[in-house]
Structures are given as structure tokens and as C-alpha cells.
Amino acid sequence: MNADRMNIVILGLTMSSSWGNGHATTYRALVRELCAAGHRVLFLERDVPWYADHRDMPHPSFCELELYSNLEQLKTVYRETIRQADMVIVGSYVPDGIAVGEWVAETAEGVKAFYDIDTPITLTALERGDCAYLAPRLIPRFDLYLSFTGGPTLRQLETEYGAPKARPLYCSVDPELYFPQDLPQSFDLGYMGTYSTDRQPVLEQLLMEPARRNAELQFIVAGPLYPATIEWPNNVVHFDHLPPREHCAFYNSQRFTLNVTRADMVRAGYSPSVRLFEAAACGTPIISDDWEGLDTFFIPDEEILICHSPEDVSDILVNMKDDQRRAIGERARARVLTAHTARHRADELIAYAREARAIHTMQ
Q1: 193: domain range?
Q2: Confidence (pTM)
Q3: What pLDDT, on a 0 to 100 scale, did the predictor assign at position 344?
């Protein structure tokens, strides 16, 4: 491993397509900063039809991105690349992830890491015995378990699953892509997220019902896979998908934005969504559901607004003064810029890798 520059290979779900997933934007921001710091990154992505039809970054300018068709091609073409890399990272939800992880564990001579962008969902699936991309026997073979979830989950990964080192590598934001814009605020409250059955009741409570009760206000929801049976109130606009290049304007067009968390992540706590950091970087004040550890990322009532009912949301939308609203957004933006940018995550990742490599050297 070069003291200053590393050769890194990432096998992730996708970087080329942001359609219906939060992985692509996370990888793009992280890899861009790794490369800006002088590290070399190769991203390997399985070529699958649902992303092939929706690629919004097929040729990133900041790193190498290569597609492979199947596991055999991956092993044949990239064996030496994997063997020689200073660090190899396997991400959650990679197709044939267990077989990919076992091959990396056998082949790679550098630091081996698993990057779990879906930690609570992964642990639930492991407990049921039906996780398609990770097996309990594989976890001790990774030098690092990088987790989107912090708090007690990290100790659980080490004590119950045998991870040698479980470390938080939260999502982040690229401040060059997310920033305040002087745009008309056409919507009083907006939400961005793919449909999921466990989030929908909270979205119903914290956006749909406030919309019904406040017909004079305007709401927006952006995200794919919502069933045709959903009856949107007349003052709610729904877009199926917004590409990342439009996210900044999306947040800046709202007086407030809503964060809704997956049920598994609420149970685990300490699982911030990338949408939290993106909205905050735009200076858009956030209304969020509640979960353990949220106050370690933002100070409630000062940097974020926590709501439990339609009445809570309606009160904020109708009664909060503009100067108070703007101050909350500005404080959240300041917090993100000091702790939660992609540059922070890239620095953390390299520090974890060097720590793991140092342990190898001493053994």
C-alpha cells in the first residue's frame, strides 16, 4: 500500500444508474472524493437490464467504471486486479453477493471490506436466513465491516457475527452538487423516496393527511414504484423519478422537506438517510420521523424538526415564521458541511483501511 495513494476496487450494486436506489449517488460522491485525494478507484458493476435502461452516469469522469455480465466473467477478467488491489470493497445488494464475497476473500491480498448501505435490512435478512448477498460465515473473512448504521449495531456485528472491525461509514453529500439556490418555493412540503410498504404509513401520516387538511398548501412527492391505487390528494404532485442533477432544485423549491425512514432502520437507530444530508446541504429545513440516534446527527428543534402526527406537521407548515424556518435550515447546512460531506467519508475510509493494514502487518 502506498503511504499516500491506494489502489481500490469496489464491487457495488450500481454507480451507472440512480434509478430506484440510493447506492449510486452514495458511491459517486465517495469515489469522486477518493479520486480527488489521489487514490485510484475501479468500480465493477453487474450489467443488469433494469439499470441498463436507466443509466444517467454510464461513463464517470473521475474513476474507472466497468460492467461484467456474470460471475464467471468477473473471475476470469478481474482476478489479478482483485489480487493486487490495496483494498477491495464488496457492497450490499450485489448480485450473487455471497459468491462474490467468497471469491474476494480467497483472492484479494490487500484489505477486504464489506460496505453495507442497508445494514438493518441485512441483519434482519441474516436472522431469517434468507439474505441473498451476505452469509454469516463470510463476515469474519472481511477485515472491515463498513456500516451505514452506527451505534449498538457495530458491537452486534463484532460480537454476534464475528466482524474483526465494524466501523461506521455513513452516507454523505457532495456540497458541489447540493447547495442553496434562489428559486421560487413552489411547495410547502416535499418528499423524495422510492415506494416501500413499511414507509408508506408514515408518509400517509406526515404528508398525505396534512395535505388533505390544508388544501391551500402545495405538496410534492418524487419516487418510483408507487402503486396506481394510491389516491393522491389534489394538492399533491407526484413525479415517478427525478435524476440526481435535479435533486438540488427539488429541495430548493420547498419550504420544508420530509424525511421518512425504513422500519428496519428505525428499529436499529443511528441510520441517517442520504436525503437528510442532501436536503440539509441545500439549507432546506427538514421535518423527520423520530428514531434513536437522530440527535447525534442534528439537534432537534435547532437543526431539524421531529414530528409524530399530522397535527405536528400542519402546525409547522402553517405557523412557523420564515426567519425561524430559514435559521433551522442554515444551522443544519453548517452541521453537514463540518461533518457529513463525501470528503469526510473518504478520509474516514482511508483511515480505516490503514488501520486494518497495520494490524495485518503486525500479525
Answers
A1: 187-339
A2: 0.89
A3: 97
- Tally of domains within the chain: 2
Q: What is the pLDDT of residues 269-291, one digit of tens each?
A: 999 999 999 999 999 999 999 99
Q: Is the pLDDT of residue 2 over 60?
A: no
3-class DSSP assignment, residue 253: coil
**Residue 146 near residue 180, CB atoms below 8 Å:** no
Rounded Cα gap, residues 291 and 278, in angstroms: 19
Residue in this structure with the C-alpha cell 460480537, named with its chain if needed? 159
Best CA proximity match to 289, nearest among 302, 77, 273, 80: 273
Task: List, in order, residues 6 or more apart from 147 with CB less than 8 Å away.
Answer: 116, 119, 153, 154, 157, 166, 167, 168, 169
Q: Where residue 195 sits, what CATH number does that domain have? A: 3.40.50.2000
Task: Check whether residue 259 and residue 127 sit in a common domain.
Answer: no
Read off the DSSP letter of residue 206. Answer: I
Instruction: Give, in order, the Cα–Cα distances in Å from 214 to each of 18, 232, 253, 317, 318.
Output: 33, 14, 19, 9, 9
